[in-house]
Amino acid sequence: MIISPVIISITLVLLVSALLIITGLKRAPGIGIIGATVIIVITLILRQEHLGAIGFGAPKNWLTTILLGFFLGLTFQLLSIVLVEPLCERLTGSPLDYSALGNLRSNWKSVIQLLLLVWVVVAALEEGIFRGFLMTEITRVTGTGPGAMIISISVSSAVFGLAHGYQGHSGILSTGITGVLLALVFVLSGFNLWLAIFTHGFVDTIGIVLMASGGDRLIRQTFWPEHER
Fold it and tell me: Of 30, 66, 65, 90, which is closest to residue 226 (Cα–Cα)?
């Protein structure tokens, strides 16, 4: 019996999404990322496809992509600190939970280790999974029209937020919003992942450095004087 490609894509989206969400909510996101990566690699092998099929083709200009990624990463991170995170915390009534990152305040050894993890593993893997694979599989089902893109961005971003459930309710919401922005970057880049990867990497890098230096508190208190983070 030949299984419909649409059924296969729907099954893959549900399987990978469930794995990422469950492990995220259980505070074991690494297991979800590893499991999703294994599923994706097996899928690509069985389909005889390369990484380019999920957006890993080389960009037209590496330097432009990196510089634009830095600008977008800085913009997204400042927007998150100034607006998104405070509003999410007020909406949910709970602060973001960064305990999974450990104590970064003035702990520069941990900062360097975390930054290496971000650039060597996190940015590329998460973009490959949440944007490259999930969005590609969803568009195999829905197509690439405007309505289909709204569905693809919404579903992948919801999964991205829930997969960060270890950050609490505010973390789920704020990460989901970041997921929407990264998904838009992916779509507007012609479904090439590298600008989203560099943007993601710089978002995390700037956020980590600001947390370690106390810069996030200073920025937050400038705009929200009554807020304690």
Answer: 90
Q: Are 193 and 132 in contact (CB under 8 A)?
A: yes
d(CA 52, CA 44): 10
Q: What is the pLDDT averaged over residues 176-201?
A: 98
| Calpha distance 72→188 (Å, rounded) | 13
pLDDT for 2 equals 77
Task: Read off the pLDDT of residues 62-78 as tens digits, 9 standing for 90 and up.
Answer: 999 999 999 999 999 99
* DSSP secondary structure code for residue 96 in this structure: -
Of 186, 126, 199, give the one whose Cα is nearest residue 153.
186
pLDDT of 229 higher than 70: no
| Residue 106: DSSP 8-state | T
Q: Residue 86 in contact with residue 220, Cβ under 8 Å?
A: yes
Question: Hey, what are 80's tokens?
Answer: 């998150």
Measured in residues, the chain has a length of 229
Q: Determine the average pLDDT of the residues in 81-110.
A: 89
* Contacts of 56 by beta carbon, 8 Å cutoff, 6+ apart: 50, 128, 132, 193, 194
Instruction: Yes or no: say if 132 and 55 are a contact pair by the CB < 8 Å rule.
Output: yes
Nearest to 84 by CA among 194, 203, 205: 203
Q: What is the mean pLDDT of residues 134-157?
A: 96
- Dist CA 207 CA 1 (whole Å): 50
